[in-house]
Amino acid sequence: MNFSDDSMYNDDQLGIDITPLVDIVFLLLIFFMVSTTFVEARGIKVNLPSATTTPVTAEAKNLEISISNSGVLFFKGEEIAAEQLPTLLRKELESGAQPVLVVRADEKAFHGIVVKVMDAARSAGVERMAVATIPKQ
Fold first, then answer.
1. Residue 73 backbone dihedrals phi, psi, to 5 degrees
2. How many CA atoms lie within 13 A of 14 on its CB side?
3. Does 81 share its domain with 127?
């Protein structure tokens, strides 16, 4: 008569099956890869500062303001004065959509001009803003 408990435990039952976990991880990875879009940088050449955060994803309609290192503003590829910005943004917002305002400031541009642009956008009714950066590599 064998009274040992060895027969109760089978070596096949001691492992944890992680196959379903791997399946879920791969499904999530594929979902995020398919649903991600990227903003294509175009227009005025500025040296963007680097950041450790992720880039802004593209929306259906983004408004873009570029600020050169000398503080010159560009809206839709044309040079504008800072006083024109609220009026131009209000015209863009008349359609009823709430686009993201992407501020592309040169890394050597003064902080004050970036703040003025963001204040002007806020006074024009822009609710969503982002600052464009280049991810660190």
1. -95, 140
2. 5
3. yes
59 burial (CB, 10 Å; 0-12 / 13-18 / 19+) is middle
Residue 41, domain member (yes or no): no
Distance CA 37, CA 56 (A): 9
Residue 45 lies in a domain: no
Q: How far is 75 from 93, CA to CA, in rounded Å?
A: 14
What pLDDT digit, counting tens, does each position of 81-131 carry?
888 888 888 888 887 777 888 888 888 888 888 889 888 888 888 888 888
Does 44 map to a domain? no
The model carries a pTM of: 0.54
User: Where is 35: in which H helix or E strand?
Assistant: helix 19-35
Widest distance between CA atoms in the chain? 97
